[in-house]
Amino acid sequence: MAKPVEALYPVYLRWSAEDEAWISEVPDLPGCIADGDTREAALRAAEEAVRLWLEVARMEGRDIPPPSNVAACASGKFLVRLPRTLHHRLQVMAEAEGVSLNQLVLSLLAANEAKRRISER
């Protein structure tokens, strides 16, 4: 079964301390923003906002942009320049852990992202 078109648009979530809510934004559709008390509620609200945005655009005869292809935008690979001292420390850590430098950096980034997400709850 095909996904509804609303589910194809990427949604970006962020916590807003000012609003004390999760903000969901659909960058492909200008002005398409929603919120919710939880991440899940903000995502559900975003799906409804996309549905309404598309409905109004169709009624007004406006062009509807296609959903962006996140996979085409982000390859999962990028080059980072860093100080030699940090590079060396990371190499030493990777060797001590018995993993590649790439695997070590990935795990450190993932741990930091998880910590950030937990602190935003």
Question: Can you describe what's shown?
Answer:
By secondary structure, the protein is mainly alpha-helical. Helix content is 49%, strand content 12%. The chain folds into two domains: 56 residues, Double Stranded RNA Binding Domain (2-Layer Sandwich); 41 residues. The chain has a three-stranded antiparallel β-sheet, with helices on one face. A hairpin with a 7-residue loop joins strand 2 and strand 3. Helix 3 crosses helix 4. 10% of the residues are buried. The mean pLDDT is 87.
Element layout with pairings:
Layout: E1 12-16, E2 21-25, E3 33-36, H1 39-60, H2 70-73, H3 84-97, H4 101-119
Antiparallel strand pairs: 1-2, 2-3
Give the tags.
121 residues; mainly alpha; Double Stranded RNA Binding Domain; 2 domains; three-stranded antiparallel beta sheet; 4 helices; 12% strand; elongated
